[in-house]
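It would be a great kindness if you could assist me with a short task in structural biology. The matter concerns a single protein, recorded as an amino acid sequence and a row of backbone structure tokens. The record follows directly beneath this note:
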Amino acid sequence: MSAVMSTYGRYDLTFERGEGAYLYTTDGRRFLDFAAGIAVNAVGHSHPHLVKTLQDQAAKLWHVSNLYEIPDQTRLADRLAAATFADKVFFCSTGLEAMEGALKLCRKYHSANGAPERWRFVTVEGSFHGRSLATIASAKNPKHLEGFGPAVDGFDQVSFGNLNEMRAAIGPETAAIVFEPVQGEGGIRPADLEYLRQLRAIADEFGVLLLFDEIQCGNGRTGKFFAHEWAGITPDVMAIAKGIGGGFPIGAFMATEEAAKGMVPGTHGSTFGGNPLAVAVGNAVLDVLLEDGFLDQVDRTARILWDQLTETVAKYPEVYESVRGAGLMLGIKCVVPAGDVVVAFQKAGMLTVPAGDNVARLLPPLNIDESHITEAINIIDAVGKNWGAGDG
């Protein structure tokens, strides 16, 4: 028996290499990767620019403490700030760390403004912000909370999309509204753009911060650099990770100058966050994502996939119910168990990811082309057809 702790329910697949949109198992099978490490491999596998950048940096310097200047970290922060609402960026290694740091920043902001009593957060049903004691308490998913003792206090939850509940939940102790513009684990649920605009207005009205979790839906996944851009508004604070490293562990939380005013030396830190290896790769990913025309191409590709996917799903109402999502963050709401559909896709040669609300997630690399879409649609069509014949 393996010494690896049994916290994952793993599929019986072992991959030894990847190339572009494909993964190859140790026994030679090829899979179209429409999981992308759960929205992590943003530019596919073994991207030449990322590979060369990592190799070059590995030969020079892997790690130094954040006690010293790290030029590429400064460069990556400046590039992220220039391309977004943010003025300040803190680097860490994971999305969970990004969320924990962002929550701390919100509390510290109010404390610095003479209102330390503002320490609570309003979150939304169906959300997922990580697996720490605080973030599982924020999402209030009973399956994630079970067995871990009393839930960490400080989180008040409202229904998804209900502005009346949101307004009613904000009180004198509220520090921030916490929201995913497109819910990932909760079942690929995109927020209405007007709802996002109203969240901004409510935060301003009540003097609380607006914290967006774009760990999964950001970094180009929806065809904009970050999903909230579709609504024409900005948050005060944002957590990012996953695609920003293209497979290398890096995350960050970002904020306006005003929101970050309380984060002074000694208030937060990370041993590995923003080390030379991580920020070298992060800069290489930005080279691709911010290249002229790249995000426009993501949007065009996503619209083609959406059209063909909705047409295919409608052919098999006994298997698939509907399509939801935004950009290249799509979900197939299933009639039959979504986990079984994910396995059927695997058997047919395509990797996908299950999500809440009985959804199979499609999270392909952002640089797929129409040939990959055709391959995916053929698999989805074949699974639907075979299921209808009793072979699912």
Summary: The domain at 15-33+293-388 is CATH 3.90.1150.10 (Aspartate Aminotransferase, domain 1).
